[in-house]
Every structure is written in structure tokens, then in C-alpha cells.
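Following up on my earlier thread - several people asked me to post the actual chain instead of describing it. Fair enough. Here it is, all 397 residues.
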Amino acid sequence: MTPQSSSSRRRPLRTRHTATAGLAVLAAALTACSGGSGSSGAAEAAEKPKISVNLSGQRAEAGKPVKVSLADGRLKQVTVADDKGAKLPGKVSANGSTWTSERKAAPGTAYRVEASTDKGGNAKASFKTAEPEQVNKVTLAPGKGTTVGIAQPLSITFDHPVRNKAEVETHLKVTTSNDTTGSWGWIKNHDGKDRVDWRPKEYWKSGTKVKLDARLNGIDSGGDDWFVRDYATNFTVGESQVVKVNLDSKTTTLTRDGKTVKSVPMSAGTPGGEKASWGGTSVLMSKEGTINMRSETVGLTGSNSYDKMVDYSMRLTWSGMYAHAAPWNAAYFGNTNHSSGCVGMSTADAGWLYRQVRPGDPFEVTGSGSKGVPDPGNGYGEWNVSWSDWQAKSALS
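Reply from S.P.:
Thanks for posting it. Predicted structure:
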């Protein structure tokens, strides 16, 4: 019931670049510890170790770990850092002959390599990876440092299609303060974009602290669409609240910690067609206040058309289902479902509910006359999918 914007992206012409081949060979000078007099030039040359790096030049191939190898002796320490000072973590092999980064080299990035040996030698090198053909960016929800309701999933929406879903998913790390059981699931957002959500098996426990580290820098999402940065967010789960919308009794009831706070009369969508309300569980996406609702944005025209400024609007789906004040529908509150799909209440009751709820609170719609349940990507509709079916949506299942 709200305007829906659309955007089109023009995909740039792609020119596939071949990474520069070859190894960067670094020479590290060692000081010989000898009691003899004056080493010969040939002996000194023999003491210089040969250290090689698997990436070199100004157009090195991105998306690969950096590997530093020593021909003779043992590596003591290796540092690989980009031009902003960020270091790639890595480990020296057990025999000391190689060092390999734990993360991959990102595209369009200059790196400096510094290596030292157990005999005191050291060497430096540099390389730059080829620029990405296209950058894939993400939108995270919920926002960093927020407090959310017990049904709020972690949600990542991608600007461009993700073909390497399993590869991407392995780089998404969720940490909770109480070892909450959950799973990633790949779905399509309502606008058609790829999206992956992390949903707990059951509603979050109040007070749970959640952290996401999306370590995507240097990962190819498929089709030469690269991630060029990491992402992170964190949030806290607030008090346990559930809004119960009963289509049969025409009431909306707020419960907190399992106890009824208040029940108010309402009128939901007219049964039997597109004006019916969604059933099942939706999640409060946002509190939008006073907004302009126009019928054409949800496909209603002719005798069903409307254009209203609506107060205390609480969005439940991308397709336009809200809970809000609907004083023009007062004759139907508590006795008839007669709206264009939303849950309408008196201005006073809608204002009261608006002040009580927070994004992430579940709205559980029960009773007869709904038009089914919303798709997982229509807002946060994943709670209408069984736990086993949700787990099967993981690319790693």
C-alpha cells in the first residue's frame, strides 16, 4: 500500500583480464658467521636465499591466497599488508619453507611483502592485483548496535547475483552470546535480488547478543563480481513480545513474556481475493509513522482505489501489508474484516501499539480468510518455513 520504487542497473561490458604470470623472486642477504678470513664473492652469492611469491606484477590474479616460498633454510616471519596497512593473516609451514595467507588477495589492491629467515636475512617485494570487472555490494539488516525483536533474522541482500553461494556462505560467521542454534538460508528478496538470512531455530531468547563478521573481501561472488571489503553488524535482542492478529475474533493482542498486555479491536483484509490479509507470521520491518498510501502500488484500481495519509504505519511485508490507524473503517472494528489487506485500528489503539512494538517483533496472523502466507523474501517471511526446510536452503546443506 506504499509506493514501491524500482531501479535498473546497466551491467558494464566485461573485458576479462589475464593475470600476470610468474613468480616474484626476492633475494635476502645473510651475514655469514665464520672465523675464517674474507669470504669469496662466489661463497657470498651462494649464501643469498631465493624467496619467491606466487603473485607478482601490477595485474596479479585476485582471489588467491598469497604464498611465499624459501628455497633453502627456514622462514621466520612473513608480513603481507595492503596499501592501507591491513595485513593478511597467515602461517609458516611446519618445515619453514613456505608461508601461506589464510585469506585471499582482494582485487584492485596493492600489497607489500616482507619476509625474514631464521638466519637473519630479509627481503621485500610488492605486487598489485587486477581491478575487478564489477563490485558486488551488500545491504545488512539489522543495523549495527540496534535492539530488535525476537523474530528478527540476520539478513544480507546482494546488489548483484551470487553464483558462488557456498563459497560466500563459508565466509559468513555468526556469533551469539548463548550459542543459539540457527542456519543460513538463500532466498530471493521481493525485488528479485539474491538474499541470505540467518534464522534461529526458534525465536531468539531475550537478551541474546548477536554478531556477524562477513569476511568477503577478495571473494568472487561468481561471474567476476567481486567483494572488495568486509562487512559486520551486531545487535541485541530485546524483550519477548508477540503481536497476535486473530482474523476470526477481529482482535489484535500484544503479549509480553507470554502474558497478555492488551487486546484491541481491529479490521483486517477483506477475505476472498487480493484484498485479503497475509496469514502466518510476518515480522515488523519498520515503524514508518505517517505515510501516503496509494492503491496502485499494490495493484488495486477502480472501485478499490484509494489515496490516504495514514498514521502510525507499521510495515509487515514488502508487498504493502501494514498495521496502522484506520479511523475511516471504525464501523468494522471488532466485527468485520473489511480493509484492503492491512490490519486497521482506531487512531488511539494504533498509536498505543506503535509505541509498544519494535522492529523484529513477530505478528502472528491466525484465523480464516487470509490469502496464505508471504514468501520468505516478502519481508521476513522465513518463519512460515519449517526448520528442516529452512536448513535445506543453506548452500552448505
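DSSP finds four helices and 27 strands in the chain. That should answer part of your original question.
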